[in-house]
Amino acid sequence: METHPDIIDMRNRHEMAERAASTPKVQAIETLGFLTGLYLAASPWIVGFNNFTTLAVTNLIVGISYALLMSGGFGRAYERTHGMAWASCALGVWMIISPWVVAGDVSTTRTIWSNVVTGCVALLLGLAASAAAKAAGKSGRSGRSGRAAREGRGASESYGATRQR
Predict the structure, then answer these.
(1) pLDDT tens, 30-55?
(2) What region does 107 belong to: left with phi over 0, alpha with psi -120 to 50, or beta?
(3) Which of 46, 81, 82, 124 could serve as a FRET partner for 90 with CA atoms 20 to 30 Å apart?
(4) pLDDT, tens digit, for every residue of 57-84?
(5) Cβ(60)–Cβ(44) below 8 Å
(6) How many other C-beta atoms are found inside a 10 Å radius of the C-beta of residue 104?
(7) Beta carbons of 98 and 115 less than 8 angstroms apart
(8) With contact defined as beta carbons under 8 Å apart, do 95 and 40 qualify?
(9) Spatial CB neighbours of 101, under 8 Å, sequence gap ≥ 6
């Protein structure tokens, strides 16, 4: 790996992604996302609709998944995990529609308000995480990279030239 022609540029991109993940904005998004997921997981017992087993289990599973998704990968490789941020958006949408979709009649005032508000917050946090990840990705890319860019060649040409030496 040390002989790779673009090692310096790869290290710079990695450092930029780490800096992007350590900003107060990103840390706030991760923390709020984690707390939103924990609330969703515990919401059947907090709000008082734990007698609706299907929705309670759905909220528990989706809440834990959302909390792990928002706090698990973003801090380590923020630039490369914007796809996971879109998955958190999908979980937010699922939270919004789940009182009407899961089996049984679980669409009561408590379940609807809890899931819709939590789902909207989760969706907004997922969009914010995705936007921040996309911004970090754009700042780390510069078209051609490393020695290939300095010498005016594409990366594949540079690698071929290096291999011939």
Answers:
(1) 889 999 999 999 999 999 887 888 88
(2) beta
(3) 46
(4) 999 999 999 998 887 655 455 555 556 7
(5) yes
(6) 9
(7) yes
(8) yes
(9) none
- Tokens found for residue 7: 């090692």
Tokens 């969009």 belong to which residue? 127
In whole angstroms, give the CA distance from residue 145 to residue 135: 18
